[in-house]
Write a structure and sequence with these properties.
about 0% strand; disordered N terminus; two-stranded antiparallel ribbon; about 35% helix; 13 helices; Cytochrome Bc1 Complex, Chain D, domain 2
């Protein structure tokens, strides 16, 4: 074989070996998307073991899908808002405006509640408890005309047009059929995964840090009950309503914001139809309270100092006000100016910087 034939043969072999495998006209095989049921690593520090839903175990892919949906603006009518628009991580998943504005620029009726430690919530959701389960709560803002103002039918249509979502639903549920129930369950998983358990207070409980003198005095005031007979030993009695590891009591209460004649929002009564629930609202956790202003269901107080002043000297008696709170209305809590400073300083120890910067809760897009 002469050298020219040899070169021609080698060139042909090189072409067959390399060129054909890199032929841009040949599509690579499409990735097969399979269901992945790997359990999510759910950690919660020293908090008590939560009662998780038995029919919606947290998985890595389920939490991820819920996270995607939580930050997805396709869930709103005009593609401008997501759940995260009114529940921002840097503010402990709440909104700093008194009433959040929806897609039509209309204000809501109540201040946005924080979304964290939902796994320790056992008395329904929203200020009035109108959503029985977290999965029920997840889809209501989508349909609310003052919020995202979209239909679930349109949401399903939009998501079904996105390969990214069809693939992710397959990873979670084993098929790419996108339904409202699947969407709600995934969003429930993500919200259940959002946990705050590493504040300075938690670190103090664990013995790894010390509270300042002012913070410690504030802690004692927080935990000490009101005592009208011995004012010098009386406390702020906060733990009566905001007790336990999550600093709440899973109840609906009237905390003396208004007299009967001044009620504007009847609260829990809208759901229960019980007159004794009038102006009663869900008792929220005080974790990260430093970051969640404005305060109360209607955002009437701008600062923690205003909140302390309300409980110290601003209780309004009414038919449904909690008896323990009503008992303080005549005398107040006997708190001095220094007491108020100390109490606020203690409340600030409930801020959890680890939670606020946890990348597992950030925007995935």
């Amino acid at each position: 074989m002469n050298k020219y034939k040899l070169l021609t043969l080698l060139g042909l072999m090189i072409c067959i070996t390399f060129s054909c495998s890199d032929d841009p006209t040949v599509d690579p095989p499409e990735e097969e998307i399979l269901q992945d049921t790997t359990a999510y690593n759910f950690t919660y520090g020293a908090l008590p073991v939560p009662d998780m839903p038995s029919d919606n175990s947290l998985t890595e892919q389920g939490v991820q899908l819920g996270r995607m949906l939580f930050y997805e603006t396709l869930l709103s009518k005009d593609g401008s808002q997501s759940c995260a628009s009114c529940h921002r991580q840097e503010h402990a998943f709440t909104d700093t405006t008194r009433f959040s504005l929806g897609v039509e620029g209309l204000p809501g009726k109540r201040q946005a509640m924080s979304v964290f430690n939902m796994a320790w919530n056992s008395n329904e959701f929203f200020w009035d408890g109108r959503a029985h389960l977290l999965r029920d709560q997840a889809i209501l803002p989508i349909q609310d005309e003052l919020e995202m103002d979209e239909t679930l039918e349109n949401v399903l249509s939009k998501l079904s047009n996105e390969k990214m979502y069809k693939d992710q639903f397959t990873r979670v549920y084993g098929d790419d059929d996108i339904t409202v129930d699947k969407m709600a369950l995934a969003m429930e998983q993500f919200m259940l995964s959002i946990v705050s358990h590493d504040s300075k207070y938690d670190q103090w409980k664990a013995g790894t840090v010390e509270l300042s003198e002012s913070e410690e005095r504030g802690r004692l005031l927080y935990e000490t009950e009101y005592n009208p007979f011995f004012p010098e030993f009386s406390g702020a009695d906060c733990a009566h309503c905001h007790g336990g590891a999550n600093f709440e009591n899973d109840q609906y209460m009237n905390n003396g914001l208004d007299a009967d004649a001044d009620f504007v929002d009847i609260g829990r009564e809208m759901v229960s139809n019980d007159p004794m629930d009038r102006a009663r609202f869900k008792v929220p956790s005080l974790r990260n309270i430093e970051l969640t202003a404005p305060y109360m269901h209607d955002g009437r107080f701008s600062t923690l100092e205003e909140v302390v002043d309300h409980y110290n000297e601003g209780i309004h008696p009414s038919t449904t006000v909690d008896e323990a709170i009503l008992a303080t209305s005549e005398t107040g809590l006997f708190m001095t100016a220094q007491d108020k400073v100390d109490l606020v300083n203690f409340l600030k120890t409930l801020t959890d910087d680890t939670f606020l910067n946890d990348v597992r809760y950030t925007d995935p897009f």
